Each structure stands twice: as structure tokens, then as C-alpha cells.
Amino acid sequence: MAGDSGGKKQDFEEGLLFTNAPQAIFCACLLAFLATMTLVTLCQHFGLLWVAMEATTLASAPLIYYHRHRRSLEATWKYLLICSVGIALALLGNFFLVVAASNPGTAGKSIVLSVLIENGQALDVPWLKAAFLFFLVGYGTKLGLAPLHTWLPDAHSESPSVVSALLSGALLNCAFLGILRSFQVCAAAGEADFCRGLFVLFGLVSIGWAAVFMLGQADFKRLLAYSSVEHVGIMALGVGIGADAVFGSMFHAVNHSLTKAMLFLAAGNILAVYKTKSVGKVSGVLTVMPATGMLWTAGFLAVTGIPPFGIFLSKLTIAKAMIDQGKTGLAAAFLALLALIFAAMSSVVLNMVHGRKSAESGAGAKPVSLLELLPPAALGAATLLLGLYIPPAVSRLLHGVAAAFGGR
Q: Is the pTM value of this prediction over 0.85?
């Protein structure tokens, strides 16, 4: 990557460098990243899906390295290495899927989604199960399911906040879509229960893992990253429960994207003023930057599922589906982990927004502009609206998506 073009550099505390890194490279990679994620959502061929997923990794790596610090470099290499291993495993899943589709009675070796679903009963079940396992582990690495998530806290923490918002709010959903499409094929072959058990297992492990690492977290951007691990676990858990919980999972994916993007953008504003990600060095946000402090607090309430925000409804839908199916023990464990996560996040967020304004807080920093406040405010308003009223068009769309993945 080309070196800095010159100009005065501003050194942030702890070595954070917000420099004049090549804007052209950043913009080109950002556009490529958006294009590859769009391709993931549109393609119906599992091979092309794999290519698009790998392309998202290559396009987003320079974005993570934007600050050009040693921690950014470490996060980028970890992201490339771990995600590439996961994508390689997903490639094996494609090979196994081709073998599963090679039985007499299927349409040749086509791995187009619609063809596989149409010929689901003719697929070779053992090979299909093996393919799903490799898809789950491979794309689950990109999704951030524990214990495959180890790239995620570093990449989300060291990226520029707008990139962190895209990684958490959009990229994770792309990886989830790849797993769900393989689940559709398994369901067409009559193996939905096999897949749902694995979804429940990985979902609970992810939520529990996130809860442990969020306790006493000293970096507020890493806190948000572990929160993403929690929420992808909730999405997987909802699909694993089935029935109404699948709708809850799809609704949760929408709400999480809106809320987490809001929080990362607000975190970027806080970082720009306080010049540190250390929780212990940030206090009095409501005094120093009142608008951002209110957005940060609202985002915390939204992401932890406090009413009337949309995540409250999606979590409630998933928990109710567990109780309706008689899985009260699972529901109790789910709610207990959510309570633990709320306690972990509240201890961090409340200490940041309250407290005394220190002498150096915001010293020499420019006030947050209206353009920096409007995007997180709009995202927060959207998740608040979804908690109060779900537009009929959105409801029909989510129910249709849920039905495609075995829900209702």
C-alpha cells in the first residue's frame, strides 16, 4: 500500500494514528467491499457465493489497516488468516455439496440453490450433512460464532468506526446468509432437525462466551465487538429453535444492524474527542458532548434489549417461542445470560457517560458536528420505530424470509 502523501500527522494517545492515509485507496476498497457484500446477497450459486464471501475479506482488509499502526497490522493479519481458514473450510463444504448432488435422480452436479431445494429428497444425506458442517464452521468463522470469533474483537476495535459499523452491521449478516442457504438445502432433504441442534449449540456458546469477555472490559470498542458475538449467537439460536423464533431471528438481524452501526458511529465521536478507547479514561461524556452522550446511552439501552427498542421485541419473540415449545430450561439460561450481559455493559457505559469531566477531557478537540450526529441519530430512530411499530411491508418481508428458513 502506498505511503503517506505528507502533511502534519496527529498522534493519538496509545499510538492511534488518524493520518492522511490514502483516501483513494480507502474509498476504492470501501466501494469494493459494498459491491462484494451485495453480490453475496444476490447470488444463488454456492460456488459464486463462496467467491463473493472471500472477496469481502480481501476488500475489507485494507479498511481495517487504515490507521497503519502495529495493532491495526496485527488485527488485519489475524482477520485475513482466520477468515481465510474459515473460507477454505467452506470451500470443502462446496465440494461435499457437489458430491451430495451427484446422486441419480438429481439434476447433475448443479449447486444452484433452487435446483438443490427442488431435488432435496434425492441428495446424498451423509455428504450433505458433512457439507453443512463445513459451511457452518467456515462461514461461522466469518460470522463470529464462538469459539471461531477470535478475529472479530481486534478487527472491530482497530478499524475506523465507519468500517466497524459495516463489519458488524452488514458483513456478519452476509456470513449468516451463507449458512442459512445451506440450511435451506438440508431442510429440503429432511435434515432440518440435525441443523437446528447445531444452531442451538453454537448460539448458546456464543452468547455465554460474549458474556464472560464483556465483564470488566477495558476497551469500549472491543465491548461492542463482543456484543456482536452475543447477537450473532442470538440469531443462530432463534433459527435453531424454529417456528416463531425464526421470525424473531430475522427481526433481530435487522435491529442489531441498525443499533450496532449507531453505537460504533457514536463510539467514533467519543474516540475523536477523548483520544482513547480506554474505559477508565473516559468519563463525563454527557457533560463534554451531551448529544453523543445521549446517543451512546440510547444505543446501550437498545442493544441490551430494553423496551421500547426493536431488539426487545426480537429477544422476546425468541424467548416466547422457547417457552411455547416447552423448552423452559433453555429459556431460563438464555434470559440469565442476557441479564449478565446487561450488567456487564451497564457498568461500562454508565461509568463513561456519568462522572466528572477531567481537565484534559476534550481539550483542543473540535466539537462534534451535526453531520457526525445525524447518522447515529437516524439509526437510533429507526430501531426505536421498529420497537413501537413494524410497518406492514417490513412485517410481510420478514415473515416471508422466516418461512423460507423453516419458520413462520
A: yes
